[in-house]
Amino acid sequence: xxxxxxxxxxxxxxxxxxxxxxxxxxxxxxxxxxxxxxxxxxxxxxxxxxxxxxxxxxxxxxxxxxxxxxxxxxxxxxxxxxxxxxxxxxxxxxxxxxxxxxxxxxxxxxxxxxxxxxxxxxxxxxxxxxxxxxxxxxxxxxxxxxxxxxxxxxxxxxxxxxxxxxxxxxxxxxxxxxxxxxxxxxxxxxxxxxxxxxxxxxxxxxxxxxxxxxxxxxxxxxxxxxxxxxxxxxxxxxxxxxxxxxxxxxxxxxxxxxxxxxxxxxxxxxx
Length: 271
Prior knowledge:
Blueprint: E1 7-8, E2 15-16, H1 35-47, H2 52-62, H3 64-72, H4 82-99, H5 104-114, H6 125-139, H7 141-160, H8 173-196, H9 202-220, H10 226-258, H11 261-266
Helix pairs in contact: 2-3, 3-8, 3-9, 4-8, 5-6, 7-8, 7-10, 8-9, 9-10
């Protein structure tokens, strides 16, 4: 029965005594739909209750391991969930590229050429395969990025931090946060590429990424020496990349066996 101090929730019809329903989170006082109300609601969704987005952004920048540990320990209100944040950042990255009149394949092509001392000859089979690979990754960025996470979690759970009281899924929390947050670096690189048509800034930013990942592990597993945790974090990153690369290589070999034309395209041009 409703009392004088309670109301009925507009969503779940439960009795409500506060500003928000304790069952579903629906607001008690709902204003008419106006431009101002829509704008306020938009920012409420972006920032979340009690500044969820700023908290996530700040702590993943200065203490990513703490944020991951806090989420694993049960604090599900202060931060965005790791998977949600991961996909949010990929979506934001793709959106920024679109606003800069780029796509992922274009961005990767420039990054790939910047990392090669001798880029493949224009029109060669190697260049064709590289472009097709970049386009494949561009079309399936979310899936491919997602598939890498278990390999990093595997290296953490079963090789470098196996004595921690965390299961395999819990070891995936930090990689999701770290890899998602690194997309801010990719966004900065894309902006610089648009302005200068150069990927030179990618080198220092790549170094920051390489340091940031072990820093996250050092920050999370603080019960042991920071130097040891940092070095183990490097091991997790390198091993995860290595295992993922091996799996990709196996898939490529299988495809080459199925379709020998791929092997012909990869052969160096004699011209």
